[in-house]
Amino acid sequence: MSYQTTTTARPRLQSLYDAIAPFTVLYMRAIAGIALMVHGWPKIQAPMGNIDMVQGLGFYPGWLFSPALAATEFFGGLLLLIGLLTRPAALAASFVLLITVYFHWVKLGQGYSGSELSLIWVGVTLYFVAHGGGRYSVDRAIGKEI
Questions:
Q1: With a threshold of 0.85, does the pTM exceed it?
Q2: Could you tell me the pLDDT band of residue 2, with boundaries at 50, 70 and 90?
C-alpha cells in the first residue's frame, strides 16, 4: 500500500486575500478601538460616576475601579485604534468585556442573548492579544511588539 502526499489546494484568489488581509486587521482594530472609546467617553467625563455599579459587581473600592474602568475603555480604545501597546490594551479590554458578559448573563439573568454582543467583542479583543496590532500598527512601525 502506498501513501501519496497531498498538497493543499491554493484558492485562485489567494493573492487577493493576502493583499487585503492586513487591511481587514486594521479595520477590525480601528472599529474595536473606536467602539471602546465611545463607551469610555462618558465615563472619562465623570470618572467617579460608576462607583455604585462597579461595587455592585464586587469590585471594591469603587473609587479605584470606577476611574480604572473609564481609563481602560477610553485610553485602551485609543491604544487599540492606533495600535500602540496593542496586546496589553486588548487584554485589559478583554477583561472588562468578560465582566460585562458576567453582568448580563448572571447578574441580570439575560443569558446568552444579553451577553452575545460582549462575547463577540471579547473574541475581537482576544484576537489582538494573540496576534498583536498587525502590519499597520504603531507597534509594528517602531518594532516593539509586546
A1: yes
A2: low
Give the largest CA-CA distance in the chain.
Answer: 73
DSSP the chain: -------PPPPTTHHHHHHHHHHHHHHHHHHHHHHHHHHHHHHHHSTTTTHHHHHHTT-S-HHHHHHHHHHHHHHHHHHHHHTSSHHHHHHHHHHHHHHHHHIIIIIS--HHHHHHHHHHHHHHHHHHHHH-S-TTSHHHHHT---
Amino acid found at 68? A
Q: In which band, very low, low, confident or very high, does the pLDDT at 10 lie, cut at 50, 70 and 90?
A: confident
97 φ, ψ to 5°? Answer: -65, -35
Euclidean distance between the first and final Cα of the chain, in Å? 49
